[in-house]
Amino acid sequence: MASATAVIISAGVLALLWALLQFLTIARVPLRSAAPEHEYNNSAREGGGDSASLVNDADTTTRRLIEIYLAIYDGAESFLRAEYRICAMFVAVFTIIIFCLVSWGTDWDTTRGGLSALSFLLGAATSIVSGYVGMKVAVYSNVRTTISAQKPGWKECFNVAFRAGAVTGFALCGFGILILYITMLIYREVYPDPQDWVYLTEAITGYGLGGSSVAMFGRVGGGIYTKAADVGADLVGKVVHGIPEDDPRNPATIADNVGDNVGDVAGMGSDLFGSFAESTCAALVIGSSVGIIGGWDAMVFPIIVSAVGIVVCLLCSFLATHIHPVREEYQVEKALKNQLISTTILMVPAVYLAAIAFLPEEFVLKSTVGPGFDTLHPYEAWLSVSIGAVGGLIIGLVTEYYTSHTYLPVREVAEACKTGAATNMIYGIALGYKSVVIPVIVLAFVIWGSFSLGDMYGVSLAAIGFLSNLATSLTIDVYGPVCDNAGGIAEMAELASSVRDKTDALDAAGNTTAAIGKGFAIGSAALVSLALFGAFVTRIRFASNDTLFTNGVNILEPVAFAFLVVGGMIPYAFAAMTMKSVGKAAMEMVCEVQRQFDENPGLLDEHPVERPDYDACIAISTKASLREMIPPGAMVLLTPLFTGLFFGVNAIAGLLVGSLVSSVQLAISMSNSGGAWDNAKKYIEKMPRDSDLGGKGSSIHKAAVVGDTVGDPFKDTSGPALNIVMKLMAVLSLVFADTFFSINNGGGIFKLN
Fold this sequence. Notes:
Blueprint: H1 4-27, H2 58-105, H3 110-149, H4 155-190, H5 197-240, H6 253-286, H7 290-299, H8 301-323, H9 331-358, E1 363-366, E2 373-376, H10 378-403, H11 408-416, H12 421-434, H13 437-466, H14 470-492, H15 497-543, H16 558-599, H17 614-628, H18 630-647, H19 649-686, H20 699-735, H21 737-742
Antiparallel strand pairs: 1-2
Helix pairs in contact: 1-4, 1-8, 2-3, 2-6, 2-17, 3-4, 3-5, 3-6, 3-14, 4-5, 4-6, 4-8, 4-14, 5-6, 5-16, 5-17, 5-18, 5-20, 6-13, 6-14, 6-15, 6-17, 6-20, 8-9, 9-10, 9-15, 10-13, 10-15, 11-12, 11-19, 12-19, 12-20, 13-15, 14-15, 15-19, 15-20, 16-17, 16-18, 16-19, 16-20, ...
């Protein structure tokens, strides 16, 4: 039987090779306009029709495509470089803080402090690389998706966008699993005795903290960038002047397309990498004693699950590209959804084989609550992972129901637009609140079931089950922004209306599946946070020799209950800060776009002689996002740190519980409201002018656009970033657990024992 090391390293290398192969396949698409000469027209513009034909030769259109592609690339590159410079400064300072506080909290054990700091540094670096690679691949593939959409049929353009997502998904998983595992192998040389592996797993938690810290800035900064440009472009362009989305006359359109890459791709990639790292670290901390009985291979079983997931996702990807390729429009959404369903189904038997192969027939773990021990078997670990995987799929499908215009809820929101923007807003907010019910019940069942099977170790495995098909989830998540950008490039290059229709259809399916992906991400974040909380309790019990938290956290203890209320407030404060940041940046964008239209009215002509000043809008988004991302990120990082230092471990326990319960429900409602408003707008846009909904350009459509602009920061800034809020607070508390206990035996500076 192969060792765990062979399986994990092979899976990581396979993921990177598969990502490279997908990239080389995309690169074979020549960067040259694929449509016949004289096909081009600007009929995609509202009211233009085919009568206003724009005759271009292939070379002229190719030059225009390359010009747009380079503008988007340069904007995304310059923003990420500026953002990562700020992140690098933060990482350098926080690495020193981790080294000092962890060393001090462990009686100046500089080995543990140094390894924790190194793990943090590696996690942050991996997160940065993940986001940067995702942006590069997405921008590289956007224009090639547009070119492929000029060709007959659906297979080529779908496959280019799908493979772009696969490059990011498999590269991220490959990088993450290899760097994490190789780091653990190096740390094993420092702690060769299985009795000391508890210190190894404690040190490795810095990896998750580094990943989530960078993800916080990436999600918030990228989210503010993309939504400031999107809202500004929509309000002035669509609502005031009635020009279509991504029209080249709109000064904010390049910034809008840049934002898709830095927010929806780079930020989201860092976010899901953080989830993978944190869920794995939590399971390793809670299950470190498994290695005493079962050896190294048994202890790293959580990483083996992720390795198995890479192979399953790779095999299932052939369903979309070869076995059942997309040939008609209606097959696009089905192909993407089948990826999630097929990977979940295959993971169940695959994880069973892994559990039988690598876990001992019987192993003992200390109970998280109470002084006893739990005896576990491989089938219980398998069931915990399976419950998580299936629970994630159910939440994803429920999310689809509430955010796809195929189903009644979104169509009701569209109907509400008939009476104006206000009723649209009311229906959308109500939909978001209602959509929380089933996912929360599913999460409750998953938590109860996995805890009953394997205590908190079972919960951590369920979290890994949620993320077991991470490569596929990332593939689908990146697919959406690639198609969105492809449509924007088609509009700006004034290609045939049929090209934009095709990219819009691809994007509409991507919006729905992206909402499904957000459901997975939120559900996994909730379980990851709970697992990290369990690991924090485990660490405090170990550090205190079972004098603290022996019978669990007493939430009625005054300090714990007080900070539970404070923790419940944090997500709302965070959402308020990020929403207001988008609003402030959008106001600047609106003023700039309107200024250009006022000073140069010729920009609104059907065929303007001059081009807008795109760079001015890019600069506004860049400066605003870099300025506004720091306060909410600082609040999330410093709140648990100061709470633990000043008020002690009981306060931290209450803070984490309150934040978890509040964040998960607010994240689901905000993400689903935003997704519903977006797809209600797209549903109206599909309708003919003489229908009840009026189609594009009608007053009903303008009411839908208002809802969509409000929903943009809901679903792409505040909502997704709340995932990181609950995870980051929990993993930071875990990393500094020994430090918090060392201050007055867990009472904090104020001695609130």
